[in-house]
């Protein structure tokens, strides 16, 4: 935040007067001309005015009324003796017990992939989205059909992770191996005849198989990259600055310049910039906002 008065006329800035920046973390400050010093009057969230400066509240504190005195805490913490006490593991909202010493989870306030047991939260098994607590065995068990995305449930109720690069899978006939569903490889992967998902080459968004080898599809390269002469990878790039598409590293395609820039047929570069590119940094540097 600056103490300044700015006026904008055309492409130029007129500064009526300019004073030093407010101290760090201040949202507003005053200036004492007699001693040439700025003093904070209000602070950013998580800070409080102390001796004219904005100092940070205690750890994990959202708001404080004085240095070292927390009024409210960040999510997952509770105020205890002007400090912030962390909630139990897996709990997003808690309160203090009757003695005021221990944090207890509020009912139905366990985080996702946890289940509440009394005033604590127990983690679900690996790969499980929703689970219950079995008091007999004192363990958590996954709810039928409630594995996370990228997992499949086995007959014993556990969740088996899908193969690498696979978004949706099923169990093979042996019941212990995951097989990727046809056409369900993740982005940047391609599926082979055996159902395996193979990763596309670097800088490639979509690819095809050349035998058993993934190669980038036509127009499959990420922005700022292009297919090389072999057509196998997107190794050409990055393009020159302000260019979206190129056929040669350090050059730009005709019509490939970003919005606001013009293709130079002689240099194959992108020339020029928009008025905003030139004016806004100047105004920002002068503290007009």
Keywords:
single chain; 289 residues; mainly beta; two-stranded antiparallel ribbon; 1 helix; 26 strands; flat; disordered N terminus; disordered C terminus; EGF-like domain-containing protein
Give the arrangement of secondary structure elements.
Elements: E1 2-9, E2 12-21, E3 26-32, E4 37-43, E5 47-50, E6 53-56, E7 61-66, E8 69-73, E9 77-80, E10 83-86, E11 94-96, E12 103-105, E13 114-117, E14 120-123, E15 131-134, E16 139-142, E17 151-153, E18 159-161, E19 169-171, E20 178-180, E21 189-191, E22 197-199, E23 207-210, E24 213-216, E25 262-264, E26 269-271, H1 275-286
Antiparallel strand pairs: 1-2, 3-4, 5-6, 7-8, 9-10, 11-12, 13-14, 15-16, 17-18, 19-20, 21-22, 23-24, 25-26
The backbone outline, from C-alpha atoms, is flat
Indicate the radius of gyration in whole angstroms. 30 Å
**Low confidence ranges:** 1-16, 273-289
Distance between the termini: 8 Å
How many helices does DSSP assign?
1
Order of helices and strands: EEEEEEEEEEEEEEEEEEEEEEEEEEH
Share of β-strand residues: 35-45%
Question: Helix share of residues?
Answer: under 10%
Q: Mean pLDDT across all residues, rounded?
A: 84
Structural class: mainly beta
Strand order of the largest sheet: 1-2
Number of strands: 26
């Amino acid at each position: 935040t600056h103490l300044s008065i700015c006026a904008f006329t055309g492409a130029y800035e007129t500064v009526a007067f300019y004073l030093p920046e407010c101290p760090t973390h201040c949202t507003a400050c005053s200036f004492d001309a007699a001693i040439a010093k700025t003093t904070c009057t209000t602070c950013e969230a998580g800070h409080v005015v102390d001796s004219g400066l904005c100092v940070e509240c205690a750890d994990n504190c959202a708001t404080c009324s004085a240095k070292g005195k927390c009024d409210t805490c960040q999510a997952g913490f509770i105020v205890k003796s002007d400090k912030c006490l962390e909630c139990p593991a897996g709990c997003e909202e808690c309160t203090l017990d009757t003695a005021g010493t221990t944090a207890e989870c509020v009912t139905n306030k366990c985080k996702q992939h946890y289940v509440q047991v009394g005033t604590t939260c127990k983690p679900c098994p690996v790969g499980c989205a929703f689970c219950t607590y079995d008091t007999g065995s004192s363990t958590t068990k996954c709810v039928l059909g409630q594995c996370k995305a990228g997992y499949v449930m086995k007959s014993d109720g556990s969740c088996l992770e899908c193969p690498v690069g696979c978004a949706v899978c099923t169990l093979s006939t042996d019941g212990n191996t995951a097989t990727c569903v046809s056409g369900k490889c993740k982005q940047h992967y391609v599926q082979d005849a055996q159902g395996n998902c193979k990763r596309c080459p670097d800088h490639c968004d979509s690819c095809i198989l050349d035998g058993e080898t993934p190669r980038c599809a036509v127009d499959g390269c990420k922005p700022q990259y292009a297919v090389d002469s072999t057509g196998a990878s997107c190794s050409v790039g990055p393009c020159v600055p302000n260019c979206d598409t190129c056929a040669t590293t350090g050059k730009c395609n005709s019509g490939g310049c970003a919005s606001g820039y013009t293709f130079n047929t002689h240099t194959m570069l992108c020339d020029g910039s928009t008025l905003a590119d030139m004016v806004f940094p100047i105004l920002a540097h002068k503290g007009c906002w």
